[in-house]
Amino acid sequence: MNMLPTLKDGNDFNEPGFWHKLSRFAATAGKDVVKNALWLYYAAQRPDTPAWAKATVYGALTYFILPIDTVPDVIPLSGYSDDIGILAVAVATIAGYIDSDVKAEAAKTLHRWFGH
User: Fold this and answer.
1) 63 with 83: CB under 8 angstroms?
2) What is the DSSP string of 40-79?
3) Residue 90: inside a domain, yes or no?
4) d(CA 53, CA 95)
């Protein structure tokens, strides 16, 4: 049985793929990209986050982990520009569900990966 959230278009959010890409490319992508991705992820884990907001989150995070990008992630300096834009729009869209608990959980992960 598939325990991953299903998006309206039938694609599944790949949680292991998300954690793999995020941890592997955290330093390259930068702290702001990682922070936004974590805010989205932890906001989607909240039971009171509505389905439309979770669909927004999982759509943005699925785009983030896709191996095929509009701007390939391996291009220096601009490789994550499309990811940054997608994540920023998703954060703005669901900002009401990114509370202090979500930010604290993300901060713990950021601290493990980036230190201070």
Assistant:
1) yes
2) HHHHHHSTTS-HHHHHHHHHHHHHHH-SS-SS-TTSTTTT
3) yes
4) 10
CA distance 33 to 64: 10
User: Which structural domain range is residue 33 located in?
Assistant: 15-114
Tens-level pLDDT at each residue, the chain (116 residues): 333 444 444 346 777 778 877 777 777 777 888 899 999 999 999 999 999 999 999 999 888 877 665 545 444 445 566 778 889 999 999 999 999 999 999 999 989 888 76
The total of other beta-carbon atoms located within 10 Å of residue 87's CB is 26
For residue 2, with 0-12 CB atoms within 10 Å meaning exposed, 13-18 middle and 19 or more buried, which class applies?
Answer: exposed
Kindly state whether residue 82 falls inside one of the protein's structural domains.
yes
